[in-house]
Design brief:
Structural class: alpha/beta
Largest sheet: 6 strands, mixed
Amino acid sequence: GTTAAVAQDDMEAPFSPEKADITMGYRLPSLNSIAALLVAQDQGLWQACGLNNVELIQTEEVMPGVVSGSLDVGLVETVDAGQAQVDGLPIKLIAGYRPFSRNVIAVPPGIESVEDLDGKDVLLGGTPGTLDFDVRAGFLKDAGYDIESVNPNYVSVEGGSDAWVALMEEGKLFMSPIFNRHYQRLAEQDFTFWVDRQDFGSDHVVGNESFVADNPETAAAFLCGLVGGIQVWSDPANMEYILGLGEAQGIEITDRITLAYEEDIKNYAPFDGGWDMSLMEALYADIVSDPVDYEDLLVLSPLHAAQEYLGLDLNPVGSMDDMDDGEEDMDDAEDSDG
């Protein structure tokens, strides 16, 4: 059904938060980025798990907000969380949210090889040497297209991917990343997708270090509601309900959103707030500037407490030595309350 498997109003909440009202930052306002949050809000899942209110705040400055403590928790790019640990910032990674992203790079009809891009306007989200550019150029090279063997004109375009796609359709741009909602329309116009793959490393949940240390029950209650929301969003049968939530939020529901819906859900696998640690380790080894200290980065006991309450397997567990310590910390915190 459309409701998540968390306690209903007449049941006692499973967690006793130290802090009942918290703030959560997120950057992207698109439906596929915030659907699970809208579900948790609409169904009172955070209240059912013990919180009074989670204030959702859209901002470009999620990581700075969490670092300063003006935000308790936030959604950040997976890579940025690892880099923050290396840089010594006071954050902890407490859950997965959208572990995967689909990476698609399109070229219009008439572009058959990288040589055809010489001197033409190309958008890869940055210039050579920036992270976005280097990752996408790497994807192209893996697929047999060495963009750096020719000299395109690398451009930036205001207005996000809808604007990029419009310029390609007008014949003014000759390569761009696109998203699920654009895919079918461009395929019908005989665009070619030189890169089309799903990769680990999109969005994780981080918390301010002091917030996480001082509020283990609050963090568990927050993640209990969040994972409940992810589970409702991940069931395609709930599409009409979710589209309605988006509309109520002021999001324009276009055909492209409905066409991309099932592809967008897949990026949230495994739908339990967890993720595959080996994929994280490979991503960080590849992209983050120095080795990541996972024992310092991760605090998983609140997530495990939420998963246990929701009847889910604990995830991730395994390669990390600090997991058992985390569980003991959670028990100590409970003991010290009483």
